[in-house]
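Reviewer comment 2.1 asked that we show a complete input and output for one of the modelled complexes. We chose the glutamine case, as it is the one discussed in the main text.
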Amino acid sequence: MARFIFITGGVVSSLGKGLASAALGALLQARGYSVRLRKLDPYLNVDPGTMSPFEHGEVFVTDDGAETDLDLGHYERFTGVAARNSDSISSGRVYSTVLEKERRGDYLGKTIQVIPHVTNEIKDFISIGEDEVDFMLCEIGGTVGDIEGLPFFEAIRQFSQDKPRGQCIFMHLTLLPYLAASGELKTKPTQHSVKELRSIGIAPDVLVCRSEQPIPDKERAKIGLFCNVRTENVIAAYDLKSIYEAPLAYHQQGLDQAVLDAFQISPAPKPDLSVWEDVADRIFNPEGEVKVAIVGKYTQLEDAYKSIAEALTHGGMANRVKVKVEWVEAEIFDSEDVAPRLQGFHAILVPGGFGERGTEGKIKAAQFARERGIPYLGICLGMQMAVIEAARNKAGLTDAGSEEFDHEAGEKRFTPVVYHLKEWIQGNHKVKRKESDDKGGTMRLGAYDATLTKDSKVAEIYGSCNIEERHRHRYEVDIKYREKLEEQGLVFSGMSPDGRLPEIVEWKDHPWFIGVQFHPELKSKPFAPHPLFADFIRAAKDNSRLV
Ligand code: GLN
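Response of the prediction step:
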């Protein structure tokens, strides 16, 4: 039976609750425990799949095809535990399940209420798979006091009462603002936040205080006294140069020890932090630098491409170089020439995306990389754009395009080299979609196998001809153009096992030009960089010696 750690936040949002949870997960693993991390989000969207990347950052996709919050990406990157559909829940999903049950008559005519029906649904969710791990870490999105969050706070309060004493603890993150004028760290907002939490029946066992300045012992003792938390359980969280420093930094501040003490686990197993020491060494002692341009569409908000940015960092760590990323808005190439903007980069990455805006710029970026021999990694839409570029400029299909853009514009303008897939095989069953289906969850989502061509560059990079990667898209490159494109040297080097869906393309006579229909960035970890990103950065490093 798992022990439960509930992680809440107060004072302000964006305190790094997800990172603290992920780092704590990694520290518990370093002490030999198994962990699983969960996110409970108070917003009313059923899942983040249909939320704009500008609003919510990246949508993180799990192996079992759930579109989840980007915090699940942090969890995976720090613990290596593959997230599942059952690790992410929102108020929207809770309410829609409750209402479905009500319509089906499952509640036998009872009046449906937040307590107990909604809270029971949340509690059932929290306990899924509780026998599988030593620790279950559940992060509650938002901050204490938010109206939408109340059912979640009530549910975790009840949950801790339902369980035997000592099986659940509460960890609360707050901010200690620093007033430069008086040179003081202020503890009052933390006191108020804990008061708010206690007013709904939750007393924190561990307090994590974000602070720009060192927290003097006197202030720690004061926080402990006013918040009814043991002084040694008041943990400082200082700003870090890299997120990958977090496990070591939190360990140094005593977070894992405080958590184990709160569970009265004594003696605590000794941690083995060698993995994180190696990660920190690679981050802080690079031997060079490479410059990578990401030609994308949601470039004003870095969180929109969170996993890609992290995977590039991991690729740099594998090669002991710092990866300097520059975000280039694809739309500028509608009016500007690509060469002045893109020359000087050691590699170009075109990420995933939806809709037509910016796609002509991405096509130009792919052409530039192909013609100049610059390493190019095209991910999902980035692969589709590379294929359209090849069709237009090499195979003579000058009006090649994607059905996605015709659908959006409501008129037929292109020869669909990329088409809308409505039927495919998942495992051993067929999935069918209609044009009119809901926008949510109607894509080819989650992990799918691919078979790689022997002797291809990708087979060599992966060191295998059988891979499994995560997908999130509606459109596919049309196999009927394979021959025409291969004649030009664009090799279809990865296919779905039934041979129908192109998964990877690569230019034969190019130092490094690979397009993938899936999202390799979702599986990259600092201690296990994804092979495609590791080799992409190796190629960028080689190129940097030439530029
Ligand atoms: N818009 C494209 C599709 O749906 C690509 C999606 C993506 O890049 N994730 O196929």
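The pocket of glutamine is lined by residues 352-354, 380-381, 404, 472-475 (CB under 6 Å). We note this here for comparison with the apo prediction described in Section 3.2.
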